[in-house]
Amino acid sequence: MTVLTRRVPYTGAADQAELEHWRKIAAKAAHTLAADAPERDRRNEQPFAEAQLLREAGLLDLLVPAQFGGAGGHFETAFEAVRIIAAADGSIAQLLAYHYINQSGIAFYAPPEAQPFWWERSVAGGWLWGDSVNPVDPALQLVPEGDGFRLNGAKRFSTGSGVGEVIVVNAQVSSGPQAGQVLAFVLPRGREGLEIVDDWDYLGQRLSASNSLKYHNVRVEPQDILGPVTDEPVSTLLTPGIQLAFANFYLGIAEGALARGKSLILARPNSWFLSDVPTYSQDAVFQRTVGELKARTAAVAALAEKLGRKYDALLALAGEVTADQRAELAVQIAELKVVASETGVDVANRIFEATGSSSAASGVGLDLFWRNVRTHSLHDPVDYKKIEVGAYFLRGETQPLSLYT
């Protein structure tokens, strides 16, 4: 077994060959998903087939270090794959984005000597990683029992839990020597007492398997535990990573809406009766609308790519990451979250202005982009991200560490 000596195993940065390789793989998967995305969305079934598509493409192991059987890729690459998938199907992009963050809990929470056990099992089992960590839900009860624990309670918005082989859970120990400590641990989807409530029926992101979970006296074994959730700077980079993942699939949805809108505009016959050009695509009114949306999306893309590289660079410092470095990057990612959220929603909404009333027909599926980005952009209030940016810029103040900041 390979032994790790670093707090996190990520090193270096993505080169052009890595990026191009995974762009092609993600684009192929996106092409498959795009063929029937609106129909699958309407059926609102658990996305087992879609998860298998990601697995067969090798995307689930992109971030697993090469010495443990993975591709040894970088977060810049992973987030770009999420962005490409989002242009076709925002739900499945969310599933993949959360998988990358949940799986990376191995690096952020587990001690170096325990990580090979987790990485190798994930690859061997073809695991998709779901989660059950929503911090605004009522707290779970994690009660010591023998050498392990018993878990009771419930969590909503547990993305990937309906189809993931494993589910990451965060819970605070209620009593005993570890009382007050928050532990991150991993449960198989079929663990006795774990009830998956198939209640995810929302406006958008309908295939993200974001069900509620109920825990009925679930046994948590010592070998299920990744480690404690701490304020170590490199470990707390998990949260900026979550926000960076969000921004990338909002960006991808905007790019997908633009691409679909372009095809619809080019297919529109004739032009508005007051226009002096023969087609809508030649009309300056519609060109201006699309041009504005395209330019704003391109600006978000440039910032996302820059921060993807910066995130990898900071992770490569491992235990040498400082709280100040962590804070600076978190605020920069908050800036991206603000513009990605607002641009994604605006693009997916205003593209209808250029595609016309016929594009609102259910069979066209253009509404899927807006429904998806509108739903997930409510995950945490973007106004608080603006405050985070403003407080740091004006006074150098940072927000308290959490799963949101």
TrEMBL record:
Keyword terms: Monooxygenase, Oxidoreductase
Domain of life of the source: Bacteria
Keyword Protein transport: no
Taxonomy of the source species: Bacteria, Bacillati, Actinomycetota, Actinomycetes, Micrococcales
Domain Acyl-CoA dehydrogenase/oxidase N-terminal, first and last residues per copy: 26-118
Species: Glutamicibacter uratoxydans (Arthrobacter uratoxydans)
Example GO molecular function: 3-methylbutanoyl-CoA dehydrogenase activity
Entry-linked SUPFAM superfamilies: Acyl-CoA dehydrogenase C-terminal domain-like, Acyl-CoA dehydrogenase NM domain-like
Coiled-coil intervals, chain numbering: none
Acyl-CoA dehydrogenase C-terminal domain residues: 245-380
Entries under Gene3D superfamilies matching the protein: Acyl-CoA dehydrogenase/oxidase, N-terminal domain, Butyryl-CoA Dehydrogenase, subunit A, domain 2, Butyryl-CoA Dehydrogenase, subunit A, domain 3
GO biological process terms, semicolon-separated: L-leucine catabolic process
Protein name: Putative monooxygenase
